[in-house]
Amino acid sequence: MVRSIPRPFSLLAEVTHRCPLHCPYCSNPTSLPPVGDELDTGEWHRVLREAAEMGVLHVGFSGGEPLQRPDLADLVAAARAAGLYSNLITSAVGLSRERAEKLKAAGLDSVQISFQSDDEPLANLIAGTKVHGKKLEAAALVRELGFPLTLNVVLHRANIGRLPEIIALAERVGAERLELANVQFYGWAFQNRLALLPTREQIRQAVGISFAAKERLQGRMEVIFVAPDYYAEKPKPCMHGWASRHLTVNPRGDVLPCPTAGEIKSLHFENVRQKPLRWIWAESESFNRFRGTEWMPQPCRSCEFREIDFGGCRCQAALLTGDAASTDPACAFSPFRDRLTRIVDSLQDAAAPFTGDAVTYRENPQ
Amino acid sequence: MSPLSPTERPKLSARARLQADKVTGRPILLYPEGVLVLNATGEAIVDLCRGDLTLEEIISQLAAKYQAPADAIARDVVAYLDRLRAVNLLETSTAHG
Questions:
Q1: Residue B55 structural domain
Q2: pLDDT band for position A213 (50/70/90)?
Q3: CATH value at residue B49
Q4: In total, how many domains does chain B have?
Q5: A158: distance to nearest CA of chain B, Å?
Q6: What is the mean pLDDT of chain A?
Q7: pTM for this structure?
Q8: Is B22 in Cβ contact with A55 (below 8 Å)?
Q9: Closest chain A residue to B96 measured between Cα atoms?
Q10: Looking at residue A35, what is its pLDDT?
């Protein structure tokens, strides 16, 4: 049987794992390879060119903090030359006027800035460093230079109660998109999940507030609410299916079907230093392992939703059940669903307020 | 979303980039986190959303080009522009009002 290989549409270019912030909700792996292994400028040029030739349309420069790379404008120019629509996914730390103008001249299309809260002391507490003021300045600069601006706010127990104020902040700074993304439990966030999980009541209120905002702001600001897995009945359609539309290249050149797939220790991921991107996408074992629906176990295999949610997230299955091929435990049909339900139920009345002592802050690779 | 007025001068948002798709050769609109593949009608409409023509003028130009009744063209154009407005790809004076 001839396997049909889908076309990739987006590339996440994780150009470095270094970051000046220490957010305990970070989904980066908790153990990172040494900084010296990062792909160099020329290697990234090749990755961007190969991605565009395969049909990729969007590139997100991410990390870590992509502004930590002195050659970022050079990489943006290469993306533009290849016809890619580029997005800078940044904490905004390091986005001086000079650099922002340089990125604009290089052809950067849009900017996404992370905020930890609207409230400065809380935002700084979550980031583990004093950066909120710099973010506000950078957001104003981004709008002044005419970039479309997305605000990304990861929601968790400490900040979800401030949702109306967070939405107001996004309006005030002139964002055109607002991503209200409930924390996803991978990497550092997984380690800190008991301190970060919101309560059921917090989620109920947040859903109402965000949907009202979505309606009110239609045509002006797009509001995206990413539902929390641990409270879901159905799993998220993670990446629209494994290796179906997206690829991530990490700082040392490993190619992954999603940013957290490195968590799946049973798979070997290929590297752009050894293999062409097109081969990795189409032929590699890791990309084909969970493509389509053939790989599915029960209850997914005979489930009517198998082409809708694709069995959920492989990384979450690996993290919570030890087997990346099992049904995502966020699904009500998963035999492991009670592992999540138990955590969530135990939390409700006993949820402690967020403090810096209750979490492990993200550390940088050496 | 309030309905577009006939005197509105729709303009494609600066956040969108129109280019040919490398794989299919078809015109596509790229914007943050999204892409819209344009059919022939869509391309003809988007081409006129430059901010100099009113909605009324766009409709009459397209009616002449396709030799079709203006009210049928108007329905298509308004529906298409509403699609663009829903994803914030059209600059109009009402969009921020």
A1: 8-93
A2: very high
A3: 1.10.10.1150
A4: 1
A5: 28
A6: 94
A7: 0.93
A8: yes
A9: A220
A10: 76
